[in-house]
């Protein structure tokens, strides 16, 4: 979908019906016709669009024939059966035209627009726009981290009752998401440094720049904390599973030893040899009593040794 926005003093970014000078063109999950419009009508380089479409594209800054491409990574939900992931958001700039493209539905851009309207934010220049967008994405990283923390606690409670594969798989998926978050946030952090040097000629809002850097670093630290806690939790559950397996094997071994005793006793008295019980009227009951006696002694020994 292609939408056009104009920055109005004290009203933030407002939707307009058509392309105007000094407007922002926002493109989300574009169709092929909309991609053709960007290439043929706006003359955006095809390579830029292909780079943004690549889900694994890293944050970077690039110039080509008067066009500037800025790629940041933003958090998204529900992609490839994962609840949370990251995706590239590309901002293409030439003269007074600013185009943002993301091939995945996201909450970052829509929330950014609503925030500018609610606060009546005035965007002074391109670097101001980019820093505010990065700041907004960092806030959403932290929002999603809260949801991830809740999911982790839910899986942990289920694992306390019974260790199941579903909960372990959920924790593994969360661990994977946290790795993506950390990698993307570090890339965005480096991107802010590059933007600061690239837009030296502009009057950069130092307070906004500081806010963007602080939010990114805070998001990185929070993600690292969650990742470390989850890694420790996974190691603990791995040890618990290994210990449970050892306990089960130990108990099965003890049970096998106890069950083997009747076979040994019955096998001994069942051999075709003289054992002085061949003609005894209570031979069967004596063998049974002997079997239970030896079994009881062995069981008592294991119980005394705390093998059970």
The backbone outline, from C-alpha atoms, is rod-shaped
Strand neighbour order, sheet with most strands: 2-1-3-7-6-5-4
Radius of gyration: 34 Å
How many H/I helices?
7
Q: Quaternary arrangement of the chains shown?
A: single chain
Structure in words:
By secondary structure, the chain is an alpha+beta fold. Helix content is 60%, strand content 18%. The chain starts with a strand and ends with a helix.
List the helices and strands and how they pair.
Elements: E1 2-8, E2 12-16, E3 24-28, H1 32-40, H2 46-53, E4 60-64, E5 67-79, E6 82-94, E7 97-102, H3 108-119, H4 126-161, H5 165-198, H6 206-270, H7 283-304
Brief summary:
60% of the residues lie in helices and 18% in strands.
Descriptive terms for the model:
308 residues, alpha+beta, seven-stranded mixed beta sheet, 60% helix, rod-shaped
């Amino acid at each position: 979908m292609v939408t056009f926005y104009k920055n109005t003093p004290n009203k933030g970014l407002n939707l307009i019906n058509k392309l105007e000078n000094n407007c922002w063109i926002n493109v989300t999950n574009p169709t092929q016709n909309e991609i053709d419009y960007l290439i043929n009508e706006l003359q955006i380089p095809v390579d830029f669009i292909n780079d943004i479409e690549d889900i694994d594209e890293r944050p970077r800054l690039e110039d080509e024939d008067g066009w500037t491409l800025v790629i940041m990574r933003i958090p998204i939900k529900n992609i490839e059966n994962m609840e949370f992931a990251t995706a590239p958001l590309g901002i293409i700039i030439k003269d007074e035209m600013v185009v943002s493209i993301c091939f995945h539905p996201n909450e970052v851009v829509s929330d950014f627009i609503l925030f500018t309207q609610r606060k009546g934010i005035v965007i002074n220049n391109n670097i101001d726009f980019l820093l505010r967008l990065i700041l907004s994405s960092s806030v959403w990283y932290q929002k999603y981290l809260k949801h991830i923390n809740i999911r982790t606690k839910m899986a942990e409670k289920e694992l306390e009752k019974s260790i199941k594969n579903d909960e372990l798989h959920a924790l593994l998926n969360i661990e994977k998401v946290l790795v993506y978050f950390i990698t993307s946030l570090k890339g965005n952090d480096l991107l802010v440094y590059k933007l600061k040097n690239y837009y030296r000629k502009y009057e950069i809002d130092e307070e906004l720049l500081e806010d963007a850097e602080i939010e990114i670093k805070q998001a990185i630290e929070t993600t690292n904390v969650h990742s470390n806690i989850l890694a420790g939790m996974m190691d603990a559950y791995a040890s618990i599973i290994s210990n449970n397996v050892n306990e089960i094997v130990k108990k099965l071994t003890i049970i096998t030893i106890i069950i083997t005793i009747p076979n040994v006793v019955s096998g001994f008295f069942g051999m075709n040899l003289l054992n002085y019980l061949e003609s005894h009227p209570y031979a069967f009951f004596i063998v049974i009593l002997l079997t239970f006696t030896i079994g009881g002694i062995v069981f008592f020994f294991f119980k005394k040794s705390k093998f059970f």
